[in-house]
Amino acid sequence: MTIHAIYIYIAQGHRRDRTREFNEAYKPTIDIFVSARNEEVVIGETLNKLLNLSYPGLKIYSINDRSNDQTRAIMESVAAKSNGRIIVVNRPDDAAP
After folding, report:
1. Helix 71-80 crosses helix 43-51 at what angle (to 10 degrees)?
2. What is the pTM of this model?
3. For a disulfide at 43, which of 16, 29, 35, 39, Cβ 3.0-4.6 Å?
């Protein structure tokens, strides 16, 4: 148990040194994937809430998983107003499950 405690102490000290070198300006791009099937009731609100995130370089992929309702139309409507931040992908009807 003592060896474990020493290891944690050393690892934490090492981690602290690396944070000093961290560049605060570095913001990696983040991709969010939202898959939905027959979610017309909530998909619009979900995508709009994701659009409200202020992180720069955020890309949202909204995947329509063969919906039978208005999910696709709602996704495309929200994407049209997103300045290219949302990309709608429609899964083909003949795709494997």
Report:
1. 20
2. 0.71
3. 39
